[in-house]
Amino acid sequence: QVQLVESGGGLVQAGGSLRLSCAASGRRFSDYAMGWFRQAPGKERDFVAVISWSGSNTYYADSVKGRFTMSRDNDKDTVYLQMNSLKPEDTAVYYCAAALSKSSVVFGRSSRAQYDYWGPGTQVTVSS
Predict the structure, then answer these.
(1) In sequence order, what are the beta bridge partners of 23?
(2) What's the CA gap between 72 and 98, in Å, rounded?
(3) Are 93 and 34 in contact (CB under 8 A)?
(4) ∠ CA 90-103-30 to the nearest 5 degrees?
(5) Is the Cβ–Cβ distance between 73 and 61 less than 8 Å?
(6) In whole numbers, what is the pLDDT of the chain averaged over residues?
(7) CA distance 98 to 39
(8) Edge to edge, what strands does the sheet with 68-73 contain?
(9) 55-108 confidence digits (pLDDT tens)
(10) Residue 99's closest CA among 112, 115, 113?
(11) Could you give the CA distance from residue 12 to residue 9 in angstroms, rounded to a whole number?
(12) Nearest Cα to 128, choosing from 72, 71, 76, 89?
């Protein structure tokens, strides 16, 4: 079992930045690839980014590529999502998720079904 808790959400103006954090507890954190997803009102939960267990590889949705950066600190059992140049369409509840995997390949790990554990989410609102 892994417990995940997101933090760092809030209200920001378009063009601004936020950094989300996701703290994990339970099983060994480095056994898991970690992902970020987001869900806007009335829409499905969509993939944002994923990072391999070691942090060596990342993969991003086209909609955030070049603006968002995912990283992890295995000593602190935490992953981060640095979000720059935010747009109103980035407004959503952001969720982190854990997938039991020691593979360095994360390309294509973008389906919700590929993740085993989820946090409760943190709200990000970008005003125009």
Answers:
(1) 5, 78
(2) 12
(3) no
(4) 75
(5) no
(6) 96
(7) 17
(8) 2-7, 18-26, 78-83, 68-73
(9) 999 999 999 999 999 999 999 999 999 999 999 999 999 999 999 988 888 888
(10) 115
(11) 9
(12) 89
